Amino acid sequence: MHPCVRFFCVLKGGVVRECGCLQSHVKVSFEMPEYTSKVTGLGTLRLLEAVRSAGLTKETRIYQASTSELFGRVQESPQSETTPFYPRSPYGIAKLYAYWTVVNYRESYGMFCVNGILFNHESPRRGKTFVTRKITRAVAQIVKGVQDSLVLGHLDSWRDWGHAKDYVKVMWMMLQQESPQDFVIATGEQHSVREFCEIAFAFAGRHIKWEGEGLNEKGVDKETGKELISVSPVYFRPAEVESLLGDASKAKKLLGWEPTTTFYELVYDMLRSSFEEVGLTLPSFDECMRRVSLSPADGRVQKA
């Protein structure tokens, strides 16, 4: 008997949240495509098959953490549950396999399994190699004086960023329904990597001025002229996903879910944690917002 099947035989059903995988980094998936496909795609199949083989299809509810990377080269904006998929990375392709596997097991075996198509959700616990955490950690270390500058890839990638605490709540809500359904979870607001940088640095009292274009573009401190941000092709994806913006109307209507954390509050929460990691204290949220108002971000906000 497979170890997964033995596990569920002992467990005798319950709630299973498949909230992640051993490889969830999009850029890394281009470097490790086969490994990504096994743990991200086949991992979901093995979980579902273990539950089925253990005879626990009626006693078990399964949540599968899907992703906005399914939409990739977006076919419409904003993206909802009915938007066609067009993944642009091995990670997105593996997640597409996992998505349809969940749908197939639900329809074939009557299992209570759902896909949560979650757009980017961040928190201070985000991995250090992901761009949002990379930015806040760099800002804190630059202020501390232990890092000179921040090197990034595509500054004009647009994302729908929310706080992980709001998204974890809705995962639970999906599993409380009478019948299983898939949901897009998003804030309906879109911001760029460039804007995230501007706000994080402004919160820290450093205001960014952009100079140059393309690979020669850099962000400098308006007051001192010191280079704080530069661009490197090392961080470009072979196939970029330029823009993602979610429409969570279905979740709002059927689940009564609403995001409770604003984009500025998200950036503040992550930056405050990064400051604490290096022994610094970030001013209050109100004071940080005052700093932003003195030097508004060059970015834009789009509403779904």
From TrEMBL:
InterPro entries: GDP_Man_deHydtase (IPR006368), NAD(P)-bd_dom (IPR016040), NAD(P)-bd_dom_sf (IPR036291). One of its GO terms (biological process) is 'de novo' GDP-L-fucose biosynthetic process. Its EC number is 4.2.1.47. GO terms for molecular function: GDP-mannose 4,6-dehydratase activity. The keyword Lyase applies. Residues 23-270 form the NAD(P)-binding domain. Its cofactor is NADP(+). It is an enzyme of class 4 (lyase). Keywords: Lyase. The keyword Chloroplast does not apply. Belongs to the NAD(P)-dependent epimerase/dehydratase family. GDP-mannose 4,6-dehydratase subfamily. PANTHER family: GDP-MANNOSE 4,6 DEHYDRATASE (PTHR43715:SF1), GDP-MANNOSE 4,6-DEHYDRATASE (PTHR43715). This is GDP-mannose 4,6-dehydratase. It comes from Toxoplasma gondii COUG.
